[in-house]
Amino acid sequence: MKIAFITIAYPRNSSESNLYSDLMEEFAGNGHTVYVICSIEKRYGKETHLITESNGIKVLRVKTGNITSNPNYVTKGIALLQFQSQLIEGIKKNISNVLFDLILYSTPPIQYNKIIRYLRKKSNASTYLLLKDIFPQNAVDLGLLAKWNPVYWYFKQKEKETYQLSDFIGCMSQANVNYLKDNNPCLKTENIEVCPNSIKNRSVIGKEEKSNTRSQIRKLLAISEQDLLLIYGGNLGISQGIPFLLEIIKAYQYQPKVQFLIVGEGTWYTRIERCLKEGEYKNVIFQKRVSSSEFRKMLLAADLGLIFLNPKFTIPNFPSRLTSYLEVGLPVIACTDKASDIGDVVENVNCGFKVLSGDLKKFEEIIENILKSPDQLQIMSVKARDLFEKSYTTDISYSKIISHIS
């Protein structure tokens, strides 16, 4: 079949990967012709172009405004409003003769209705939404939008239209499924399912390789083999509830046996950087985003992976970073709001811990318990890898999606 995948978050080069590129490779590996239609933001200084990557996937990058990592909500909003028309124009100029069997698309952004209508009318294709973000309610939760604001109602209408145009909707977790059903009674419940964040099931890392990589990275970072290393990797923005991360770091400021490695960028990056410079944080290593291969090596050097969510959320977010942690067998501490079920998922199989964002006492109890009984991390590591293989690999997501089409 011919597959169209519409997204913003697609790696800018074939040497990088994320959950979307991994899923598209799964489709391509099963004999399908894949077209990725994504944005190339104007800050990169490139025009619209179509390329065929070494894996055979055709990527149409359409020049758009700056949507991601844009702290200016006005220009970001304008870019989002123009996004659909720009992608449709790019499709018309570059792949107008291609007819698709399946149209896949991921949120954010939520406004895909024009593109879906255009491609579906043209190709009579099935449509499948990979729901990764519930907008505009998340903006309301964070105080970025008010329900009396006309902008809110505009995006609320686009959300409803996108849902209704989707033949099937894949949600990140069961809490997401429940939320969508409860808040959208007009949708056919049988067409809403769990289709989790997923990445390729790479080969299991041997004990010797893992040990060597751990020693190598820790030596490079000047971290002792005996220290407990906690790693956070990903976006550093308002959605992540960064104040609690800073509160935790401050609590362990004078405990050198507990080390922190923070890797990422976002709207809170400079604030974190300033905070660390103002204090004596000798047990914190902070750096910008690195390549996926380098980050994977850092994960192998760590003892625990950290996940953070803003406590104001009423929607059940499920951060994709979990898959990277589980893939290398890294136990997790999920510091989240009450709505997310990611903490329940890892606790239920004993490969992680759930902490409500802001509950420093609970976090400290977990760390104290681990320091007293560090051997438990080895057992949790095995269970983390087992959870990954059973629930978060691309072949699982692929099978769920394709079962509705073939």
Describe the protein.
- The chain is of the alpha/beta class and 406 residues long.
- It folds into two domains: 2-195, Rossmann fold, CATH 3.40.50.2000; 207-391, Rossmann fold (3-Layer(aba) Sandwich).
- It is built from 15 helices and 14 strands.
- It has helices spanning 19-29, 73-94, 113-123, 137-141, 150-165, 174-183, 207-221, 242-251, 269-278, 292-301, 321-327, 342-348, 360-372, 376-391, 394-402, and strands at 2-7, 33-41, 49-52, 58-64, 102-107, 126-131, 168-171, 192-194, 228-235, 258-265, 284-287, 304-308, 332-336, 352-356.
- It has an eight-stranded mixed sheet with strand order 3-4-2-1-5-6-7-8, with helices on both faces.
- α2 (73-94) packs parallel to α3 (113-123) and α11 (321-327) crosses α14.
- The termini are close together.
Task: Give, in spatial order, the strands making up the sheet with the most strands.
Answer: 3-4-2-1-5-6-7-8
Largest sheet features: 8 strands, mixed
Give the ordered list of helices and strands. EHEEEHEHEHHEHEHEHEHEHEHEHEHHH
Helix content: 40-55%
- Can you tell me the CATH topology of the largest domain? Rossmann fold
Strand content: 15-25%
Give the CATH superfamily of the largest domain.
Glycogen Phosphorylase B
Apparent shape = globular
Which second-level CATH architecture of the largest domain applies? Answer: 3-Layer(aba) Sandwich
Average of pLDDT: 90
